[in-house]
Amino acid sequence: TKALSDHLGAEKKMGYMHLGAHLDMADSWAGEKNVSTCTMARITELENLSMDNVAHIGARNSFNPKDHIDLAKSRGMRFHPMYEALERGVDEVMDETISRVWNGTDGQYLSFNFNVMDSSSAPGVTATEPGGLESREIMRVASKISEQGKLSVIDVTELCPMFDVSGSTSRMAVCVVMRIIAGIALKHGNTLDESLRRPGWKFKE
């Protein structure tokens, strides 16, 4: 995240979206400030990242202690707990967060932590949580993001092959990334070279 911030420079604005089950807003943990549970705390300190352009979706369950929530609120970070996404609907919440992250920013960073998904749909992560998004919903999230036509960085975290016995979680991650990249390419008119199509095959609008 800091690499994108440095690349943009102080004069340009960055947007940041995090999808995950945990806020990761600990100011420090066991005396350390640069560990996974402190990720969002450090990111929200970047100088060219305004809280007006930050969004978190999917926080739920007990690994979001009060001090994390308090720090997020004190910094003015807008976060949408999972219950809100489920009650309001994924489309409505995504439209709101996309507006925050993309509007008026010069670069956008998407952090895709796969524990945002329900543990039954994505068992191959290191910190699974029940009550998350299902596969259809996560593909809808990917489509919504791709419709913006631009994205500077996407990272995929929490995948753990040791726990992903069937390979379904890794496959889901690949599908999400491909959907985003393909959707952005389509927005820019970068579709398959006609010479590579099967003879007689036509794209239907």
From TrEMBL:
Q: Which residues form a coiled coil?
A: none
Keyword rRNA-binding listed? The answer is no
Does the entry feature the keyword Coiled coil, yes or no? Answer: no
GO molecular function: any one? metal ion binding
Q: Which InterPro entries did the record assign?
A: Ureohydrolase (IPR006035), Ureohydrolase_dom_sf (IPR023696)
Q: Which GO terms describe its biological process?
A: putrescine biosynthetic process from arginine, via agmatine
Q: Keywords in alphabetical order, please.
A: Hydrolase, Metal-binding
What PANTHER family does this protein map onto? Answer: ARGINASE/AGMATINASE, GUANIDINO ACID HYDROLASE, MITOCHONDRIAL
| Name the UniProt record assigns to this protein | Arginase
The protein's organism comes out as marine metagenome
